[in-house]
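Help needed: design a sequence for this.
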C-alpha cells in the first residue's frame, strides 16, 4: 500500500520534517536509501504519467540499486506482441529535473511499441527513487544511475544483455554520453536536446560566466552549506519555475513553463514543476567536467539530436565535434528544446528505431 501524501507537503521542507516526526516513514517520503524491494513497495502502482498508456505495451514497476547503495525506481515497458527471443533494451532518463512519468516514460513506451524493452527511471534523490537529502544532483552519481540501469536490464531473462543502448534527454543526455564512454556494455547511445550540465553550471550559458561571477556563485554556495548544516530543515531549494509568467519575457523560461507548469507536462514529483533543486548541487558540476572522454564511446555509435531553434543546440554541436566516429548529428528543423520532450510528431522516433535496430543487432 502506498502512503498518499499531498504533493505540496513533499515540496515543503518544513512539512516533510513534520511528517517524519509524525510517524510517516522515510520510505513513504522517499527520504532514505532504501533497499530495492522496499523502494518498489513504496512506489505507486497507479498510472500517473503525463502521457496516455499504450494498449500495445506491458508496463511493470521495477527497482534496482546503484553502486552507491541508492535504490532507484523505474518503469519497465515491454512490447506485448513479442516472441520468445530476448529483446534489445534501452535505459532512458531525463530531462534534468524531471521524473520518469514525464518525457523519459513517453520515450520508453514509444520504443517498446517499436519492439524494444525500455526502462525509464528516476535518478538518485529524485521522484520515487531513494537517497537523502532530496533533490540533489551529481555528475558522478547520476552517471552511475545510467550504469545501474544497464546492470538491471542485463539481469532480466526477457532481455538480451548484448543488445543494450541508452537514450538521454536534456541534462541526462550529457549523463548518457558520460556513462556510455566507460561502460562498454552499452552498444549504442542516442541523446535529444542535450545539455552538458557541468559546462552550463561552470561557465554559464554560451560560456559567458566571468571568473568573478564564478567565484561569487561558489562563495554563495560554500556559505549555504553552513546554513544547511546548521538547519533542522531540509537543505534550501531553488530553481523551480515561476507559477506565473507575469512580468517575465524570457523566451526560454516561457518555453519551460509551457511544459512543466501546465497540463502538458506538470507532475507533482517533478522538481522543475515545483520547488527546484538543492541549491548547492551545482558545486560538484562546477568542479567536475563531464564528457572529457566522449571520444571513448567509439567504435560504438552516438546519435545526437537537437532542435534548430533550441537555445541548447550548441551543446549538441560541440559534443558531436568532440565525439569520434561513428557519430551522427541530426538537427530537427523548426524545433525548440522542449519540443523534443513530448511532441511525437516532432521527435524522430523512426530515426531512433532505425538507429537502435541497426546497432543493437
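Sure. Designed sequence:
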Amino acid at each position: 500500500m502506498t502512503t498518499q501524501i499531498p504533493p505540496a507537503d513533499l515540496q515543503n521542507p518544513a512539512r516533510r520534517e513534520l511528517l517524519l516526526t509524525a510517524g510517516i516513514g522515510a520510505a513513504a517520503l522517499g527520504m532514505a536509501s532504501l533497499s530495492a524491494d522496499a523502494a518498489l513497495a513504496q512506489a505507486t502502482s497507479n498510472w500517473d504519467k503525463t502521457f496516455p498508456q499504450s494498449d500495445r505495451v506491458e508496463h511493470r514497476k521495477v527497482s534496482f540499486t546503484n553502486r552507491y547503495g541508492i535504490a532507484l525506481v523505474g518503469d519497465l515497458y515491454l512490447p506485448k506482441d513479442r516472441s520468445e527471443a530476448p529483446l534489445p533494451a534501452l535505459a532512458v532518463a531525463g530531462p534534468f529535473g524531471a521524473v520518469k512519468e514525464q518525457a523519459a516514460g513517453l520515450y520508453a513506451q514509444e520504443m517498446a511499441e517499436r519492439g524494444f524493452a525500455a526502462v525509464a527511471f528516476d535518478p538518485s534523490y529524485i521522484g520515487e527513487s531513494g537517497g537523502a537529502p532530496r533533490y540533489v544532483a551529481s555528475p558522478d552519481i547520476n552517471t552511475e544511475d545510467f550504469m545501474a540501469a544497464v546492470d538491471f536490464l542485463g539481469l532480466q531473462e526477457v532481455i538480451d544483455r548484448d543488445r543494450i543502448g541508452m537514450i538521454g534527454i536534456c541534462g541526462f543526455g550529457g549523463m548518457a554520453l558520460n556513462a556510455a564512454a566507460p561502460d562498454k556494455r552499452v552498444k549504442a547511445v542516442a541523446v535529444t536536446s542535450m545539455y552538458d550540465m557541468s559546462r552550463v553550471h561552470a561557465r554559464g550559458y554560451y560560456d559567458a560566466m566571468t571568473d568573478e561571477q564564478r567565484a561569487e556563485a561558489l562563495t554563495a554556495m560554500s556559505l549555504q552549506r553552513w546554513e544547511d548544516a546548521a538547519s533542522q530543515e531540509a537543505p534550501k531549494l531553488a530553481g523551480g519555475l515561476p507559477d506565473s509568467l507575469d512580468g517575465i519575457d524570457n523566451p526560454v523560461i516561457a518555453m519551460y513553463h509551457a511544459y512543466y507548469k501546465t497540463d502538458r507536462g506538470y507532475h507533482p514529483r517533478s522538481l522543475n514543476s515545483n520547488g527546484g533543486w538543492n541549491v548547492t548541487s551545482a558545486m560538484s558540476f562546477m568542479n567536475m567536467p563531464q564528457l572529457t572522454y566522449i571520444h571513448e564511446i567509439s567504435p560504438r555509435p552516438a546519435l545526437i539530436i537537437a532542435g534548430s531553434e533550441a537555445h541548447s543546440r550548441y551543446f549538441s554541436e560541440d559534443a558531436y565535434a568532440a565525439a569520434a566516429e561513428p557519430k551522427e548529428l541530426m538537427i530537427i528543423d523548426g524545433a525548440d528544446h522542449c519540443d523534443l520532450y513530448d511532441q511525437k510528431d516532432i521527435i524522430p522516433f523512426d530515426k531512433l528505431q532505425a538507429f537502435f535496430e541497426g546497432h543493437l543487432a
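DSSP finds 14 helices and ten strands in the chain.
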